[in-house]
Amino acid sequence: MKTGTNNSAAPPLPPRRRWKRIRSLLISTVVLGAAVGGVVAVKNLPDPPPPPAPQPTPPKLVRVQVVQPRELVDSFILPGIVEANRVVKVAAEVAGRIEKILVHEGQDGTRDQLLIELNTDLLQAEHDRARAQSEYDHRDLARVSDLAKRGVATTAELDQSRTKAAASKAAFDAAEANLRRAKILSPIPGVINSIPVEIGEYVTPGTTVVEIVDIDPVKVAIDIPERDAPWVQLGQDEKIFLEGRFAREIVAPVSYISELADAKTRTTRAELSVKNPPVNGARVLRSGQIVRVEMRRRVIDNAILVPLETVIPQEENGQPSYAVYVVEEGKAVRKNVRLGVLKGGQNGGAIKDTQVQIVSGLAAGDRLIVANQRYVGPGQPVLVQGEAPAKSEADSSAVAAARPPRQPAPQDDKQSK
Fold this sequence. Notes:
- It is a single chain.
- By secondary structure, the protein is α+β, with helices and mostly antiparallel strands.
- The chain has helices at 15-44, 121-149, 155-180, 393-402, 413-416, and strands at 60-66, 70-91, 96-101, 108-109, 114-118, 183-185, 190-194, 202-203, 208-225, 237-242, 248-261, 267-274, 278-279, 282-283, 290-303, 305-307, 312-316, 319-328, 331-343, 355-360, 367-371, 382-384.
- The chain has a six-stranded antiparallel β-barrel with strand order 2-9-12-11-10-15. Strands 16-20-19-18-17 form a five-stranded antiparallel sheet, with no helix packed on it.
- Helix 2 (121-149) packs antiparallel against helix 3 (155-180).
């Protein structure tokens, strides 16, 4: 019985599978080699240069204003309307035909000036009749009185005679008054504004014949808001601003304050009395003209005022707040402030013309930044316009950094040779 070894070798792989295995080995080898090469290359790279040193912030050019307390007039501006002091419609007191008109529209008139004359034919006749009757009754009273003294006339006859004399005297006085009233006089001084009648017209008592306007002085009427009404007092002088041909500022007293406020607008009417004489033949103020009136509330002593444009609005803890910048030791310092009264710019003026009171946060002598204040930050170096720059290490570094690099001087050709 033969015994022999069993050589059970693995059968050879098919060519296709064998090729896939070889390819996988080759790819793994290439990837491993690339990784090793990359690590070696990274280790051989030079160290990166250190980051450049931070350059100091150059100083910002600013302009400052030294804070100085002064008197502040707390006021407000209101529109005012010019009104005539009085407007009188002169009416006829007796009936009659107009015979003469002795004035013309636009004429300056005086008190008791003759304006219009009416026809007096009937009035004169009535006057003469009443006078004659009065004279007769007085003569009759004298006769009855003499008879009564002698006991001839009774007391009743004497009383009747006295009554007739008194009645006729009253009738005569009325006729005389009517005759006088045929001449219509001006009750006030002023300008003849209109004459709505013509010569030849027949007028009855109550017919308006002349309208007279008293415009010296005039009234400037204003409506004061409810919150400001308590500040206004009678006799208090206020400023009135005119524009146009007669642009000027006028000071006039408060002459009237209404005791009743308007229920709809919640305003109180007040009036200022302003003298209005002719200037070069024309009145400075005319009825219906709109003017600006500056009304005072109070006067605040030692108030700190700054330009409104220097105040920077901000927000802290969800609440609006305000800040300004001042210069201290060559640096900008932010200070939170509390605002008070606005001054100026209340009639369409620019913000740069408006000032605001600083209630707290600033003190007298502080150097307030009034130009470029929105381009600085807390602690930033600043250079005040018109002042020499502060000699500090930071400024020296900034100047050195801004200076261009110095070029080497060219060498002599002979020395180089």
